[in-house]
Specification:
Layout: E1 4-7, E2 10-13, E3 24-28, H1 33-44, E4 49-54, E5 71-75, H2 81-91, E6 95-98, H3 105-110, H4 112-132, E7 138-144, H5 169-188, E8 191-197, E9 199-201, H6 210-222, E10 229-232, E11 238-243, H7 244-257, E12 263-266, E13 271-273, H8 274-283, E14 291-294, H9 312-318, H10 326-340
Parallel strand pairs: 3-4, 3-6, 4-5, 6-7, 7-8, 8-12, 9-11, 10-14
Antiparallel strand pairs: 1-2, 11-13
Helix pairs in contact: 1-7, 2-4, 4-5, 6-8, 6-10
Length: about 350
């Protein structure tokens, strides 16, 4: 619990006094993978009172079942400008974490218009609602390593200054959101911190994402619900994975210690070849001789061959570093699916 003093857009947090004010925290997409873990982090550490946007009243709330009594849920479609404006005026939060998005890269090829509408227009609706309101929150917008897209071999590890060459509609949508965040900071003085998170994983990760998909398949094999064969896509790509429980700590620090208007990579700075990820998951299974078969439907029209980041700028600003090794993330993710299937 703390008070907030703002000096030249740089947040300064005061020590609790005898009269403390609990910060108001708004999370868009609170019922999603990252949003639910961020809500857990805020509540477990008594950092603020949490409200969250969900898309419709029939949305899946499984990820936040354990905290439903401790959060205020608001039914609000981020693509509906009126609904977003009404929500911001009613909540007037101190902190906003903008996580609501169409976040599955392959889906962005199948539904590019929906992806743009949710990720770009939805972000515009949020920025405009804040601009028109009397609120002056700190805002974190969750960008993506997919913004970098085509990265040349000599450009790794990737710094924030690297050219953006997105290779998917999703990547393009995140670039647009990112640059809109910068524009609203420059044009209106809105306190927007831009983060570019690299791959994040852990319990609750949706089954459409690669490592979670493989963990689910292996769990189903163990339960004799499918034959001992894992379907895969491109195993030659390299990705930089961070445990979601480390990532949400970074998101909080981004608003606590980073400079609005700036952009920060958040990543583990270690590249995992997807073949090695698959091998590790299979090694955790009690079933031997699991076969692997390439599935054409799991291959992308264009794929980023290597994404490994440099987050020295963020580390220097916040002191953050990963604490959970990816091997542990995979073990926890597999155990999550063992309970689910």
């Amino acid at each position: 619990m703390f008070k907030i003093v703002l000096i030249s857009y740089q947040p300064v947090f005061l020590k609790p006094s005898s009269r403390t004010i609990m910060a108001s925290v708004l999370i868009t997409g609170i019922n999603g993978f990252v949003g639910s873990h961020l809500a857990d982090h805020v509540l477990e550490n008594n950092l603020g009172e949490v409200s969250g946007l969900t898309r419709g009243r029939t949305v899946n709330l499984e990820n936040i079942q354990g905290i439903l009594e401790r959060v205020k849920l608001i039914s609000c479609d981020i693509a509906d400008a009126y609904s977003v404006q009404k929500t911001i005026e009613e909540t007037c939060p101190d902190f906003i974490f903008h996580l609501a998005a169409q976040a599955f890269v392959p889906e962005s090829w199948r539904s590019p218009i929906e992806t743009m509408n949710t990720n770009v227009n939805g972000s515009l609706n949020l920025f405009e609602a804040i601009r028109k309101s009397k609120c002056n929150p700190l805002i974190q917008i969750a960008g993506s390593s997919e913004e970098y897209g085509l990265v040349l071999p000599e450009e790794t590890p990737i710094k924030e200054t690297n050219e953006l060459r997105p290779l998917s509609p999703y990547g393009v949508s995140k670039v647009a959101m990112d640059l809109l965040g910068f524009q609203y900071f420059k044009s209106y003085g809105m306190k927007i911190v831009r983060t570019r998170g690299f791959n994040q994983s852990g319990p609750r990760r949706g089954a459409v994402y690669v490592d979670s998909d493989w963990c689910k398949q292996v769990a189903e094999i163990e339960k004799r619900k499918r034959k001992p064969e894992v379907l895969v896509g491109n195993l030659q790509a390299f990705r930089d994975f961070t445990d979601v429980r480390d990532m949400v700590k970074a998101y909080w620090l981004a608003l606590e210690k980073c400079k609005p208007g700036e952009v920060y990579n958040i990543c583990s700075e270690k590249a995992w070849k997807m073949q090695d990820v698959l091998d590790k998951i299979i090694s955790l299974s009690n079933i031997k001789n699991i076969k692997v078969r390439e599935d054409a439907e799991r291959l992308r029209p264009s794929d980023v061959p290597r994404l490994v980041g440099d987050c020295s700028k963020f580390r220097k600003q916040t002191g953050w570093k990963t604490q959970i090794p990816y091997e542990k993330t995979l073990e926890d993710l597999l155990n999550y699916w063992r309970q689910k299937v």
